[in-house]
Amino acid sequence: MAMLTQGEPRAERVLLTGASGTLGRVLAAGLAAAGYRLILSDLVPFPDPLPEGATFAAADLTDADALAAICPEDVGSIIHFGGINTEKSLDLIYSANIYGTTHVFELAKARRARVIYASSNHTIGFYPRTQQPVSIDDPYRPDGYYGLSKAYAELLGRMFFDKHGIESIHLRIGSCLPEPTETRHLATWLSYPDLIRLVLAALQAGDPRFAVVWGISRNARRWWSGDDAARVGYEPQDDAETYAHSIREESGSAVARHFQGGSMCSRGYTRPDDPDR
Ligand code: NAI
């Protein structure tokens, strides 16, 4: 893959999975406005008017041949936002997130494309909030099968770079919402404009190799730091603090409020003893 200077748009086409989802729609508009030629893909139709230069092709991530069939030979990057976005049955998580993401990496290998992956803070959700900052060098502490599937994808990226030289940038997204609504978001919020900045940086990074970046805005009360943001060129501009006066106290159990992953940690939690032991 040719080396590119930071800030140059890449000439190749870009495949966006999960394009019909909440964040996919934000990215479709933002990346098309930045001049990228997008192939949008999802299980379900794209609900908005197609942005300029974009096409849509349906494919199920669990079907490697169907995915390959809609991906042009000259694709330069695959932005992988498709899949299950919360705790669900093991079957669903495995088929969409484990097999689906493996199919995406195999496709990237076949096309010699870069992968930009929607990872999650739920890879490390079981760090208590008293333990911060958490860096990308700290061990995984996934808070469910969903978080485990995200950790798998990061390790897949590590292996594909070491073994095949396939570049990947893993965005450990916190809470990507139009506005922060509860106190946890003061640490975890990622604004939509910062999401677009983050993905543009990942598309344009000169030599990302295998990289992990916290997908959060420049929140004053952030819990996470120590990542590859500088190497990737991500410079967030928003801060959840701007909304601190208007957001509500976090709801949820004591377990949810104890851990960084919030309600994903308390879901199905059965541990009887002191969680910090
Ligand atoms: P979403 O659920 O709105 O979008 C996911 C899309 O993937 C949907 O349009 C769905 O139809 C598609 N999809 C599901 N299974 C598929 C399959 N087998 N084949 C093809 N397409 C399939 O989720 P959202 O919120 O837009 O999240 C996008 C990505 O970002 C997800 O991977 C999620 O885990 C990740 N993420 C999101 C965060 C957030 O704050 N929204 C936080 C952390 C990570």
Q: How would you describe this protein?
A:
- With 277 residues, the protein is an alpha/beta fold.
- The protein has a single domain (13-266), classed as NAD(P)-binding Rossmann-like Domain (Rossmann fold).
- Helix content is 32%, strand content 14%.
- It has a seven-stranded parallel beta sheet with strand order 3-2-1-4-5-6-9, sandwiched between helices.
- β1, α1 and β2 (38-41) form a beta-alpha-beta unit.
- α1 crosses α6 and α3 (90-111) runs parallel beside α4 (145-164).
- Mean pLDDT is 95; it is low at 1-6.
- 1,4-dihydronicotinamide adenine dinucleotide (NAI) is lined by residues 18, 20-24, 42-44, 60-62, 81-83, 85, 96, 100, 118, 120, 173, 175-176.
List keywords for this structure.
two-stranded parallel ribbon; alpha/beta; 277 residues; 9 helices; globular; single chain; disordered N terminus; Rossmann fold
How do the helices and strands line up, and which of them pair or pack?
Elements (H helix, E strand, L loop, with lengths): L12 E5 L4 H12 L4 E4 L13 E2 L7 H6 L5 E6 L9 H22 L2 E7 L24 H20 L3 E6 L1 E2 L8 H4 E2 L1 H13 L5 E6 L13 H4 L21 H5 L4 H4 L11
Parallel strand pairs: 1-2, 1-4, 2-3, 4-5, 5-6, 6-9, 7-8
Helix pairs in contact: 1-6, 3-4
Short structural description:
With 277 residues, the protein is an alpha/beta fold. It has nine helices and nine strands.
Shape: globular
Main sheet properties: 7 strands, parallel
Query: Roughly how many Å apart are the termini?
Result: 47 Å
Task: Say which CATH homologous superfamily is assigned.
Answer: NAD(P)-binding Rossmann-like Domain
Strand order of the largest sheet: 3-2-1-4-5-6-9
CATH topology: Rossmann fold
The small-molecule ligands in this entry are: 1,4-dihydronicotinamide adenine dinucleotide
User: What proportion of the residues form beta strands (DSSP E)?
Assistant: 5-15%
Residue share in helices? 25-40%
Instruction: Calculate Rg over CA atoms.
Output: 18 Å
